[in-house]
Amino acid sequence: MLTVFNHPLITHKLALMRDKNTPTKDFAQQLNEIGSLMAFEISRDLPTKPKDVETPIGICHTAELAHDVVLVPILRAGLGMTEGIRSIIPTAKVGFVGLYRNEETLQPVEYFFKCPDMTEATVMILDPMLATGGSADAAIEMVKKRGAKNIKLVCLVGVPEGVKRIEESHPDVDIYLAALDEKLNEKGYIVPGLGDAGDRIFGTK
Ligand code: PRP
Ligand code: URA
User: Fold this and answer.
1) Whole-prediction pTM value?
2) Is the minimum distance from the CB of 131 to ligand 1 under 6 angstroms?
3) Cα-to-centroid distance, 143 and ligand 1 (Å)
């Protein structure tokens, strides 16, 4: 299932990120803030289990999260959303998938994997950009191989092509976007998009 968040605050912050004149520090800050806002909405349907808490006045029959949340940023750009989400889910565990796109073939190349136990967890794969969908597809494969079953793909900007690829190869994975853009250009960049997310977060261009 695809969810595109139409929220004024998310759109406002994303507009700042899209602006080519926005400096690295502000770009990174807006990305983390959008990550928090999206995570708040996405976590709405997380399962809970009953819990009794002793307040200063009496017993409160309340609830807590039933399962671990594991955040899996795709390096590098997914790192830019991780702290924002941890700020509202501080108990979340964090794993890492290292992938980069070969600039000519646009195929993902794997270079790192380190994740905690994901078998019972809600796993959120994080990457601002869903372009061809190759990187997200590969990351989902990698976590599924290690036992992840409940997977959410959390991106900022996507295009129909990338969404279609994930819907076809992983129909069980929910996809969340802050915006669905028009298309990819001949170099595989999202149009209008926001440019190269990793470079803009880390100031490498
Ligand atoms: C970017 C982006 C995604 C990928 C999306 O990463 O962060 O991981 O491209 O493209 P796709 O949907 O066509 O696979 P990049 O390869 O530039 O690596 P980086 O984050 O290290 O800069
Ligand atoms: N990766 C990016 O960082 N930006 C795009 O537009 C496409 C892939």
Assistant:
1) 0.97
2) yes
3) 17
101 is catalytic: yes
What's the pLDDT tens digit per position in 176-205? 999 999 999 999 999 999 999 999 999 998
Residue 179 Cβ < 6 Å to ligand 1: no
- DSSP per residue, 55-124: -SSSEEEEEEESS-EEEEEEETTTHHHHHHHHHH-TT-EE-EEEEEE-TTT--EEEEEEE----SSSEEE
| Residue 144 near residue 151 (C-beta atoms within 8 A) | yes
Interior angle at CA 44, CA 114 and CA 180, nearest 5: 75
Atom 22 of ligand 1, nearest CA residue: 198
The yes-or-no answer on residue 105 being catalytic is: yes
What span, in angstroms and rounded, lies between the C-alpha atoms of 114 and 161? Answer: 28
- Catalytic residue among 11, 105, 119, 204, which? 105
pLDDT digits (tens, 9 = 90+) for 85-142: 999 999 999 999 999 999 899 999 999 999 999 999 999 999 999 999 999 999 999 9
Please report which helix (H) or strand (E) contains residue 129, including its range: strand 129-130
Contact 166, 133 (CB under 8 A): yes
If you take atom 10 of ligand 1, which residue's CA is the nearest one?
131
